[in-house]
Amino acid sequence: MMMLPDKKFTDFIDQNGLFERNGTLLAAVSGGMDSVLMVHLLLSSGYKFAIAHCNFQLRGHEADADQAFCKQLAQQCKVPFHTINFDTQNYATANKISIQMAARDLRYQWFEQIRLQHNYTAIALAHHQNDAIETILLNLVRGTGIAGLHGILPKNGWLVRPLLFLSRQK
């Protein structure tokens, strides 16, 4: 049986002041390994949270299966579930932006709307150290200068990243 890094998780949250223990989080869950791990860590550490899942309707049955999986995960954890289907392709075309930027815009706008509607204290995203390194490299390539060297911050407004203490071992 795999041991979850509960203590490191809660220590990272406390050391970085990500959110208060008595708050209720909105956990952004894609259905992938990182976000599912975050859900299990939140649950095993005793945090109150809800799950939010976006279906960008870009991967057909796979996207629908992820959405169903996330709903089932929320039911198993006995937490509220929020989901939405986006017409990502049309949004990208209408705004003359890439699919990735469209998905990002739609996702963050919706997360903030749900956070406000339900008074969640923060939005938890499942980024880890490897994502932070990737962001720094991307920023260097784009020439963002010193400001781009911080990568992904553990806390940025209402957005928190409680998995940044983890790295994915290849």
UniProtKB/TrEMBL annotation:
GO MF, any single term: tRNA(Ile)-lysidine synthase activity
InterPro entries: Rossmann-like_a/b/a_fold, TilS/TtcA_N, tRNA_Ile_lys_synt, tRNA_Ile_lys_synt_N
Protein's name in the database: tRNA(Ile)-lysidine synthetase
Annotated source species: Mucilaginibacter humi
Sequence ranges assigned to domain tRNA(Ile)-lysidine/2-thiocytidine synthase N-terminal in this UniProt record: 25-169
Keyword Ligase included in the entry's annotation: yes
Keyword terms: ATP-binding, Ligase, Nucleotide-binding, tRNA processing
UniProt keyword annotation of tRNA processing present: yes
Catalytic reaction(s) noted: cytidine(34) in tRNA(Ile2) + L-lysine + ATP = lysidine(34) in tRNA(Ile2) + AMP + diphosphate + H(+)
Protein encoded by which gene: tilS
EC number: 6.3.4.19
Pfam families associated with the record: ATP_bind_3 (PF01171)
